[in-house]
Amino acid sequence: MRKVKIVMLAVMLHLSTLLMACGTNTTTQETQKETPKVGATQEESPKPVKNPFSINVAISKFTTNAPLFIAMEKGFFKDENLDVTFKFLDSGQAINVAVASGSADVGAGGFSADLYNMISAGEKVVAVADKGREEKTYHYSAIVVREDDSEIKSIKDLKGKKIGLTSIGSANQYNIGMMLEKNGLNSKDVQWVSLNSVSGLLEALKGKNLDVIGLSEPNVSIAIKEGYGKVLAWVSDEISPQSAAIFFSSKFAGNEDASVRFLKAFIKGSRYYYDAVLAKKDGNFVKGSNYEEVIGIISKYSEQPKERITVFPYIDPNGKMNVEDIKEQINWYFKENYIKQMVDPKDFVNTELLEKTLKEMGE
User: CA-CA distance, 95 to 321, in Å (whole number)?
Assistant: First the structure.
């Protein structure tokens, strides 16, 4: 009997040990299930929700607006939870007026005497990013002369000539005026003729009613291909003017969150555009893998056939403006009596929003 009791006691102790081990293992497994890993918690954390915001953009159907077309088509605005609507207008002045009046939050406009007069009169617009400027080796605007005119061989030969423009006080007039000064002439050495339209300029040159006109692409190429025009000088070979910009209304510029989100989408579009059509290797243009896609997007929004989209304005991939040239423009227009009073770029140029955008995005 004593041996039986000893055996039974040993069996009971063994069973007790097994049960304790099972209990401990179960508790450990349950504890492991209930305690999530730190990495898993971080991965499952939702991203901060960006408040939806509606934005009206005053814009024209020009190739210079390619980054905006791309941002719309590729969903870059939607990525920032922005509901963007394009309002197509016919002129840069109409775009600037729309922004100043507040009927548009954003405008894709140009710099001109009209803009500076508007600002000096108290209207508020804020230039925040580059949307087109002349850059060395990137040809866009030019002085064009008649193909059959052998007298004009250099800018110095323009003395006494009539120069056709779309309007007095335009960016092209500033460009040509600065090119004249660089070559020892001034605006009083020529006669400026305003014809109010690009088609009027082309017809005047073709009909030999003018010897010289100021043009931008694609119209420079049209005059050359049709055989009645040739380039005397490309603007970017002589000077580096800031031609156009993204403008914010003063109210929209005051909303830093929405402004930075808009600029992020715009910069994404600018970089996508640059990679497609502006990138170079060993000094030569190299078509990006997205070249055909970008041509298609530009064609869709500009309503031009794809085969006509062959020359592309330089747009800084990081949106940086040539602020020094804006100062030069104001000085020149004032000197030439195209603006009534001086304005300070500090009053309408804001670089801080772009700097914040690039800090968050990376350059």
Answer: 19
User: Which of 108, 212, 79 lies closest to 156, judged by CA?
Assistant: 212
Note whether residue 318 is domain-resident.
yes
Judge contact between 240 and 136, C-beta under 8 A: yes
Under a CB-based contact definition with an 8 Å cutoff, are residues 117 and 265 in contact?
Answer: no
> What range defines the domain where residue 280 resides?
53-134+241-361
Distances (CA, A) of 165 to 144, 152, 251: 11, 18, 34
**328-332 contacts at long range (C-beta below 8 A, 24 or more positions apart):** 328/178, 328/241, 329/111, 329/116, 329/174, 329/241, 329/242, 330/116, 332/174, 332/177, 332/178
Q: Looking at residue 218, what is its pLDDT?
A: 85
Q: Which two tokens stand for residue 192?
A: 């400026």
User: What tokens were used for 2?
Assistant: 């004593």
In eight-state DSSP terms, residue 64 is G
Residues 178 and 266 in one domain: no
The total number of structural domains that make up the chain: 2
What is the pTM (predicted TM-score) of this model?
0.83
Quote the CA–CA distance of 240 and 329 in Å, as a whole number.
11
pLDDT, mean of residues 172-196: 96
Show which of 214, 237, 260 is a domain's final residue: 237
